[in-house]
Amino acid sequence: MRTTRTRTRTKTTTKFVLLQRCCFHHQNHHRKEMGNRATRTARTRTGCSTMRASATNETDLQSDDDDSAVINERRKAKVLVVGAGASGLVCAKELRQRGHEVRVFETKSNLGGVWLHATANNENKTTKTAMYDSLRTNLPREVMGYEAFPFLSSSSSSSSVDARRFCSHKEVQGYLQEFAKNFRLFDVLEFNTTVKECRKKEDGEEKLAEREEEFGPKWTVKYEQGEKKELKRDTFDAIVVANGHYSKPRSARFLGADVFPGKQMHSSTYKEPSVFTNQNVVLIGAQASGEDISRDIATRAKSVYLSAKTWQNAEWGSNPNISENLFRKPNVKALLENGSVEFEDGSVVENVDAIVYCIGYEYDFPFLDPKDANFSVDDNYVNPLYEHLFVPENRSSLSFVGLCWKVVPFPQFELQAKWIAKLLSGELKLPPTKEMKIHVENFENDRKSQNIPKRHWHCLGAEQFAYNDRIAEYAKETKLKEWRWEMYEKTGINKRTNPEKYREEHNDGEVLEKAMNEELTMMMMSISSEGTRRGDSQVVNALAKENRKEKNEASSDPPLSASEREIVESQLNALSDSQMKQVKIYSSLLLEWNQKMNLTGAKTENDVLERHVADSLSIIEAIENTCPNSKDTSKPFKIIDVGTGAGFPGMVLAIARPHWEISLLDSLQKRTKFLDHVADSAGIKNVKTIWSRAEDAGKFESEHREQFDVATARAVADLRLLSELCIPFVKVGGAWIAMKNQSGLEEIESASKAVEILGGEAMLYQEVQSIGPDGNLRTVVTSYKLTETDKKYPRRAGTPQKKPL
Description:
Radius of gyration: 30 Å
Number of helices: 24
Largest sheet: 7 strands, mixed
Helix content: 25-40%
């Protein structure tokens, strides 16, 4: 969503309601059918790649008698999956679908891994687990779900207990239970089974060099099973390690920890806040668990202090007060014998009752001998691993799934599992061992060159999407949908700007619609392939028809009248031949990229020129009339286009006025990358992009604040909102110039107080010769900047929209 654009659409809301009803009505039928197919052998025709027309088809590949020879040639490995959490379950699913013999060993008495709460497992509440009573996901459920099994709330689902997008841990546990049930995984799950030792099998005369080269060694496994912990042994062709990385709490010792009289505990033993009632508590570590647990404890404690070296949002460190009894502090320097805690800035908190270490976990594989398995764990980095998965010496016979962190986990696990399953069946091959080692070495050198601590080398963050694409290519699978990237990015921005309310107040409506439409498509494919009742089919077809109708209505531009065409031609004729060539390159790239991401409703070059380029050019006269110094080519003249979107008007201004310095600000990185590509391709040298929300880029501490001669915006938002987003960028003596339709005249009076508060002069308006994208005549609203903007503006993201000045 563009930072300067807000709108509501009743029709879209209605469509979501209908869509969810349709999806929910069919979800159980769809998942039941997918589960019934999960045990069928996947087949491919000779000379053809595996069919992937839909997620349903992955479990329903049919063949005729001619296919049997191909199937028989596929290697069927005996595979042990260690762990029945989210990664282990999807590995079991993919391995079975490739025809492998699978056993899944799980230490606990139920599936779910980290999502299995101690009480749900009938275990003591002091059991070490990352799960606590109030935990909710920090990602929306739509982006969390597996590709083959969307994670939507369903009132008809027996496992659904929390329909919120950022749901409770119980809802995730229920989702995993339903996943296992529908793909019939319970018959391969063995609970209360602990792997004690995995060693390479010494085959003697049976050892085949060819098998070793392609698949790696076999493994002898010792394990304890049942209440009596009976020791057993078995041999496997391959081991998939999926035991997660939330079982061994990371330890940290601070000066004075041994003499500090208060309670010290790791967050892994935290369950609920009542034990801290009326106490002073210090939490160390401010990643996801630290941020959330500190707020949870603050509901009962007297005072809570959250301490960290770095913050998810750098600005948080300069704002110590989170709430009335919750405060941010720098890193701890020492714990004192008198019960005080000293911090690195010299400040001291007295009478501290408890310390909670929210410092994460360590990788732990007690059943593997590093020397035997040819790997090591050094400073929480597992190495050497090819693509975070395979020890080169062991080929595909030993894989580690789910080691990467700061990622969207479930879909990544799914891609990793698909690759492993195909490698073990012989359909795909890993590179030679030497090449894999070189790849690992290059990866490590790259991490070193960036001065990234070794313990963070499995941290992917923004790199996860390129990594996922690589894994999909290796596995010859379709890449994850772009909406997942967009939803993850928007959620991250929302979380960093609105940490207290991001789970309830969302900024990804357009992306959510894409996710819901994908689920609808899957439902329709399932229905068309399996058949359904007439009434159900009519609902689906009606929704599809409404989608197409809305899209056509939104994108169809009526032809220009003679007078309108004259206005457009007069604007375009002001461009030189070389400038028009740049515009044509811009237009061509816009239409090309629009096929992959939502940039514009324009469908043809004429649409772009008539409705967007000409309209953008119309503001030049207003800028030059308001700021005569803009005509002086010997001095820099700086303009920022706030919420630029596809680059209108900023990119067009840069083309038409090469001596102006144009900055294009947008909150979506994919848009700024598109605009960078346009500038490079068209040779537009006087433009740069800024990837940020306007509320963040315009803050008092920002390098962009009050640096521009003009701030402009071509948006439909109310002038009260636009003024708070734009005026902080304008230096004293500069001007804010907004492109509006005739409604701008009505908004001037209501926005006058906001403009005055922000340091602007009373607004004026000019009529310009242009037709906006909505077909209405243009009005340009201007205001000179008289005084510096108060440092408390703009307010934090979301507030200007909810509470306009």
